[in-house]
Write a structure and sequence with these properties.
mainly alpha; 0% strand; single chain; globular; 11 helices
């Protein structure tokens, strides 16, 4: 099977960055988040909750690797196994369990990278990657000054609120969208570096913002319409309400 070199490179780069110190988690903690994400698919509690009419109907403890706080484990397992039924009430309970919204957002980015890479590799029938080695260093712990809560459960950084101290996380946003930013692009913007690690890989696996809106040319082996049909079907199966 022939796989695009740029796609493999983007995945390898995102995977290696998991081991780097982040903005709110250390390198060792980020690797632990990736390991717990992989482990969550074997959790009996998560399996029982998925079958229940409501996840709140099933009590118990997660099967966990035991290296992360309980709130982080709950977030990882629910996002990995039952993301379509998350609620703002659940989100507030997770934060009350001593998990800040900044740490939550960075955790989401890591889970998303792991799920995307591993789903891709399982689908094409190649072995999963070894977890990256954790690197020494302290998290930056920098929150964007312009971040505010308006369109999501957590605070986000709108393009017009970005300052010179923030990385250019909205590059390649053409036309009017550069001013406002699509909500999906803002979703992880509270932690810009984590958002960019996910977004750079996502655009390579899908399309860049500019090429996605260029309907006069096809950039992949499948057409825009075919990609959107597949995306819509996957979103429906995963109960994605975006």
């Amino acid at each position: 099977m022939r796989i695009r070199a740029d796609l493999l490179a983007a995945q390898a780069h995102a995977w290696a960055q998991i081991g780097q110190p982040g903005t709110w988690w250390s390198g060792a903690e980020r690797v632990a988040i990736a390991a717990e994400t992989r482990h969550a698919v074997r959790c009996p509690l998560c399996a029982a909750r998925r079958k229940a009419l409501s996840p709140a109907m099933t009590a118990g403890d997660h099967s966990t690797l035991g290296t992360l706080p309980a709130a982080a484990v709950e977030a990882i397992h629910r996002i990995r196994s039952d993301s379509g039924r998350l609620s703002e009430h659940w989100y507030r309970e997770v934060l009350a369990g001593d998990l800040s919204e900044e740490r939550y957002v960075e955790l989401v980015a890591i889970v998303a990278i792991v799920v995307a890479v591993e789903t891709f590799r399982l689908t094409i029938g190649v072995p999963l990657l070894d977890l990256p080695p954790p690197r020494d260093g302290k998290p930056m712990r920098i929150r964007p000054r312009g971040a505010r809560r308006d369109v999501a459960w957590m605070a986000t950084l709108a393009p017009e609120d970005r300052t010179d101290d923030d990385p250019d996380l909205y590059r390649e946003q053409p036309g009017p969208r550069q001013r406002y930013g699509a909500n999906i692009h803002r979703a992880l913007s509270l932690v810009p570096h984590a958002m960019m690690q996910w977004w750079d890989m996502f655009e390579c696996m899908y399309l860049t913002s500019a090429t996605m809106r260029d309907f006069g040319r096809e950039y992949r082996a499948v057409t825009h319409a075919q990609m959107e049909m597949l995306a819509a079907r996957v979103a429906a199966l995963n109960q994605c309400h975006y």
